[in-house]
Amino acid sequence: MTKDELYQYAMTLYDFCDYPAVKYKILFSLLDTPYEDKKLSVLRKEFLQSDIVEEMYQLQDEHGGWGRFRSKDYLSKAKIPTSTTGINRCLYIGLTIHDRDILFMANEYLFSLLEGTSSEEIFEKNERAIPWQMAEVCNLAEAIEPNRAECDEIYNQWLYIAERAYANGEYCYEADKAAQHELFLTREDRLVPMQSELLLKRRDRVSPELENAMLRHLGGEASIRGHFWEKTPYDLPDEFQNRVMRRWFHTFNYINQFRGSGLYLKDAVQWLQEQMNPDGLWDWGPQVNDPWGYFGYFSCNRHYKHNRIVDCTMEILNFFKQYIENNE
Predict the structure, then answer these.
(1) Are 306 and 326 in contact (CB under 8 A)?
(2) Is residue 2 within 8 Å of 22, Cβ to Cβ?
(3) Range 213-216, long-range pairs (CB < 8 A, 24+ positions)
(4) Do residues 314 and 24 make contact, with C-beta atoms less than 8 angstroms apart?
(5) Per-residue pLDDT averaged across 309-327, rounded?
(6) Which of the residues 83, 198, 215, 248 could staple to 139 if both were Cys, CB 3.0 to 4.6 A apart?
(7) Residue 290 has pLDDT above 90, yes or no
(8) pTM value?
């Protein structure tokens, strides 16, 4: 997988779909066109007026979220089931904190959760719930606006935990438990999962040795043993178009957050390239049946083949881009 191949794949999708949100995402996120670029600035006006952005704006509540933080309200028939889903969707389609006020308001919502000033209460079903959810809040806040001082304390806690857990270059459960009990005053043997995504938001603070240890444990040993998922890059389906294909992407994207991810994903990347259709695009197939809003859909109606191809191709190209960056 090379940058030239990614460019070729991206431009094939660019020519295939005239929807401004798709073209904007390709230029801005996949091909790294500068934010101030004149062509991108013209396209941004269409993007910000598109139905996909307008819908996120209209569905956002007065607090800056989209309902509860991560616990779906089953009494509500909201298109966006949680605020976590809403924020991730905004980030996925290419919105920044400078575009309209959607992510600005979302950031205010997140910090109200951190500061305890929100009218929403963090659901405390066990002693791990609060530190786990606070880390998720900071992960989203750092994705919107990096290096926020409000996240320093929680970030430093997780860096300390990770450095203790991987002190010898391999994961040690007892060291992880001791560090979490020390910081969170918890007592259970069950632990909050390692917040690797949050740690890598400030990659300059994570040593190459620590990142490599996390890759080999979280991306390698854990997936082989099936600790975190059943769909692994070592057990790829015979056919790309099947009703659970999306589940492999949870694994692909999780491992792909680390530098050196090619150690485990090289064959998966080759397999994905082989699944391209004759038009140079990818298609989940008609059997895909996931609720709107949980993934990075670029349309307000997901029932058409054209939209399905766009959604699938974009997700794969995002994966390829991060793979190239982490394996250069």
Answers:
(1) no
(2) no
(3) 213/166, 213/169, 213/170, 213/171, 214/162, 214/166, 214/258, 215/255, 215/258, 215/259, 215/260, 215/261, 215/263, 215/264, 216/170, 216/263
(4) no
(5) 95
(6) 198
(7) no
(8) 0.90
